[in-house]
Amino acid sequence: VQQKKMTLSQPNETAGPGDVADLTQMYDPTPSVTLKEKSTSRRNTRKRRKAPSPNCILDKKAVRKALDDRGIQVSPRHLEAFYQALHRQHYPDLPTFLENYDRHERKDYDNMPSVGPLKNSVSSKKNRNKLQLPKVLLQFLADPDNGFVTLTSRVAQQQKSADDSTTKLAVQLHDGQLVESVIMRYNNHNSSRASLCVSSQCGCAMGCTFCATGTMGLSGNLTSGEILEQIVHADRILAEEWEERCKENENMNKKHDKTYKDVPKLDLIRNVVFMGMGEPLDNYSNVVDACHALVNRTQWNLAHGRVTVSTVGLVSQIRKLTQELPEINLALSLHAPSQGKREAIVPTANRYPIESLIQALDEHMMAYLHKRKKREAAKSGNTTDTNMTTLSEYTAAERMKESTRRRAMIEYVMLEGDTSSIESAHQLGKLCENRHLVVNLIPYNQTDVKDKLKCPSWDHMQKFREIVASYGAFCTIRRTMGADIDSACGQLITLKQKQEEEEQEREKHAALKVPVRDIEDAVPTPSAANTNSTKAKTTSIGSARDLTPPADSTNDVVSNGHKENAASNDALDRWILPLSVATSVSAACFLAASTLYLKQ
User: Fold this and answer.
1) Where along the chain is composition biased (Polar residues) (predicted)?
2) How are beta strands 166-172 and 178-188 bridged, if at all?
């Protein structure tokens, strides 16, 4: 390859078609695609983001690569022990973590209940559940040039709904881009639980017509560390809220013990759904790494059934997820019962027919039964049964029995029109018949998309639900949370970033209209006083609203800078007419010459 590159780089020699083809095969391991495939594939135009520098310590692959590059040998057990200790300390920065670990070694950790001792305080025996970290790993973590920090992002903005059930977080990443995650609280008498909706990409390339995130386009994928950082931010916010409630009750009641018993315990994140910005399976490797960390016993230790991945329907990636994480819940964003209707609102639907989507959903739902049959066949010594891979080998009774234990979800947005008609309800019901799927009807939440879409009435949605449920499917209407702060389903978009861009555009237009040279030139004219610019209303430079002069005294307050600019504009006006005439004459000559040339 190097010889061919040197040969092609010589100025006196040219490369033949065979050489170019050979080099293409050497450098490009992916198969060649046609123009039609390129036009339909949105992932070919994916924008690549720069890797975080410094990187997030939660990105295990990056940490392992950095250790290997330095020649540091750390066993997987010790690395898992490090992440367990980091999780127990609620993810402080690395210097604080090392300081706490050092205190834990010297046994002066009386006020540190989050760090487990290496030795039992009674028997003085080593605790087998806690591994002592090797010195080489501690030295690597203590090195300020190791290229890692605990968190690379920060919460730039928080919005809370009127009923305090939803909090939307605008998380600013290392490169300045914003992604949004939503905390949803579910209070049930004396207990409460919280779910977190996380983003997996900056924007989205799927381009669904009813989704606000689809209008942003795709700016890049999130790393597994950046996905997990959203959960860390949410955990900290919930912990701070619980502490504030404890302090309020403490002030109201002097008895501390009783106060803490009366405070309902606000659990940390119990459910994580990948239903935020982006298509999770379009960022497959990072999303799967984040899922492994969520269900890892040394970290968040969530049950597999409490992690849900939503997808618009990438069949090949769904099957990969079934092979790697069959216990994870899967939600299919169907949104239409037929192929033609789905292609009208989901642009990527032309790549995967609905039949293949439902089959992939069935395979994921039946993965438990398949694994159990494999184990039973292996115990009995029957190797022929271990090759079962198709759904046709399971009886209808077996499928119904297994689906009652574990169900896959179909998400269906309710849009006024063909997709919410009575005919569509019957089509959707027949599609889910004998499958025991959970159909979740999502009322359309108003967004700023170009098409003026509407949500059907509540009575119509109830009738639609009853028809689908009559075919044996478990059909529900999703509870809308956070619509007043644009955090409901389909409304996630970086509004702050959009507002900043609009603000910059207004500043540019204002600068072009009135060239300001100094602070004294910022005196508004009567015409500018009537503009609707938000920044002009909130500016505090010299109390601009109070300094607006009357119409007859405008010339008295115009600065020298304005006069100079006006004189320069008059000088430019003299050249406008001659230049316009010259341009018209040259254009006419060009058209005449082109006509004669074409005739010849």
Assistant:
1) 1-13
2) antiparallel
The yes-or-no answer on residue 432 being catalytic is no
Q: What is the pLDDT along the chain (600 residues), one digit of tens a residue?
A: 444 444 444 433 333 333 333 323 333 333 333 333 333 444 444 567 888 889 999 999 999 999 999 999 999 999 999 999 899 888 999 999 998 888 776 554 444 444 444 444 444 444 444 567 888 999 999 999 999 999 999 999 998 888 778 899 999 999 989 999 999 887 765 557 789 999 999 988 888 878 877 777 888 899 999 999 999 999 999 888 888 877 777 777 655 555 455 555 666 788 999 999 999 999 999 999 999 999 998 899 999 889 999 999 899 999 999 999 988 999 999 989 999 999 888 888 888 999 999 989 888 888 866 766 777 777 777 655 544 445 556 666 666 666 656 678 899 998 888 888 999 999 999 998 877 788 999 988 766 555 578 888 899 999 999 999 998 888 888 776 544 444 444 444 545 545 555 566 666 655 554 443 333 333 333 444 344 444 333 433 333 334 333 444 434 433 444 445 455 555 556 778 888 899 999 999 999 999 999 988
C-alpha closest to that of 482 among 74, 87, 185, 155: 185
Q: Which amino acid is at 453?
A: L
Among 335, 328, 332, residue whose Cα is nearest residue 315: 332
Calculate helix-pair angle for 94-106, 76-88, nearest 10 degrees.
100
Helices 367-380 and 354-365, axial angle in degrees (round to 10)? 50
Instruction: Collect all residues with Cβ–Cβ distance below 8 Å to 415 and sequence separation of at least 6.
Output: 210, 335, 345, 444, 453, 454, 455, 456
CB 193 within 8 A of CB 509: no
Say whether pTM exceeds 0.90: no
Question: Domain 154-365+407-485: which topology?
Answer: TIM Barrel (3.20.20)
CA-based nearest residue to 437, from 399, 393, 494, 394: 399
Active-site residue, from 291, 455, 475, 489: 489
Residue 70: Cβ within 10 Å count: 12
CB 175 within 8 A of CB 49: yes
H and E: helices and strands count for the chain: 22, 14
Catalytic residue selected from 13, 56, 180, 250 = 180
